[in-house]
Amino acid sequence: MVYLNAVKKSFKQGPHKTLPVLRNINFHAPRGKTTALIGPSGAGKSTMLRCINLLEIPDEGALRVAGKEIRFDKNEKYPPLGKSHFIRQKEILDLRRHTGMVFQNFQLFPHKTVLENIMEGPVLVKKESPREARAFALALLEKVEMSEKKDSYPSTLSGGQQQRVAIARALGMRPDVLLFDEPTSALDPELEREVLKVIRTLVEENNTMIIVTHNLLFAREVADFIAFLDDGEVATYGTPAEIFGRAMPKRVTDFIAAMSPEDYTI
């Protein structure tokens, strides 16, 4: 479903300096499976996720999502953004139609109700009829146990409720792959459980999902595969049993051993 091949991404730090964040990402996420991205802060997990739906444009490499491929190599059709802006906005939007993104800070439209937040994308982007979009949005709100809040505004909701609405909004686009960027990092443990319950349901429905998470127990419990990122590269990739249950590179075992007991709670 998702492939990254030799993807690199740097950010400018002043006029003459760049900071490499993704050095050489090779990664795949199979259809119908859940892949968790773990690793230390600054390893490039969130940047990698944002590159998948082109919120960040890679400097080099290739990306394929649901059969649609874009190359970013210097000598190919699509040079790095910032050097030659040859990537067309239409191609970016076409690829994004296959993805649904859930951010750690929710990013709901504050001036729209819960129901309107979910209907916005299907009506404006996918050109669905308001009636069709409304019916699907109501079904999604029932799925995330937020039906009673359909006419509420985001400011009246708890963080856990806002994140459940954000998940419903992402599902409203009927994406091929769901991307979660630390979906519970802004929540206390009680609200975190609300959101993780919804994500577990999506796992059981065999959705294709990529989840950046600091919760190792959750990653071990729900993921089919886990990628450990370190210093801008996928250092280790395997099943939870392989990552947690057999001899791993020292950097991986040190990271897991360093996590406090609170990091293993759901």
- Straight-line distance between termini: 29 Å
Order of helices and strands: EEEHEEHEHHHEHEHEEHH
Q: Spans with pLDDT under 50 lasting ≥5 residues?
A: 78-85, 261-266
Mean of residue pLDDT values: 87
Major beta sheet, strand line-up: 6-7-8-3-9-10
Q: Structural class of the secondary elements?
A: alpha/beta
Question: Oligomeric status of the shown chains?
Answer: single chain
In short:
The protein has 266 residues and is of the alpha/beta class.
Task: Give a quick set of tags describing it.
alpha/beta; six-stranded mixed β-sheet; 10 strands; 24% strand; globular
How are the SSEs placed, and which strands pair?
Blueprint: E1 2-12, E2 18-29, E3 34-38, H1 45-52, E4 60-65, E5 68-71, H2 89-96, E6 99-102, H3 114-124, H4 130-143, H5 159-172, E7 177-181, H6 189-204, E8 209-212, H7 216-222, E9 225-230, E10 233-238, H8 240-245, H9 250-258
Parallel strand pairs: 3-8, 3-9, 6-7, 7-8
Antiparallel strand pairs: 1-2, 1-4, 4-5, 9-10
Model description:
The structure is a single chain. The chain is α/β, with parallel strands linked by helices and 266 residues long. Helices cover 35% and strands 24% of the residues. The chain contains nine helices and ten strands. The strands form two sheets. The chain has a six-stranded mixed β-sheet with strand order 6-7-8-3-9-10, sandwiched between helices. The chain has a four-stranded antiparallel β-sheet with strand order 2-1-4-5, covered by helices on one side. Helix 3 crosses helix 4 and helix 5 packs parallel to helix 6. The protein is globular and about 50 Å long.
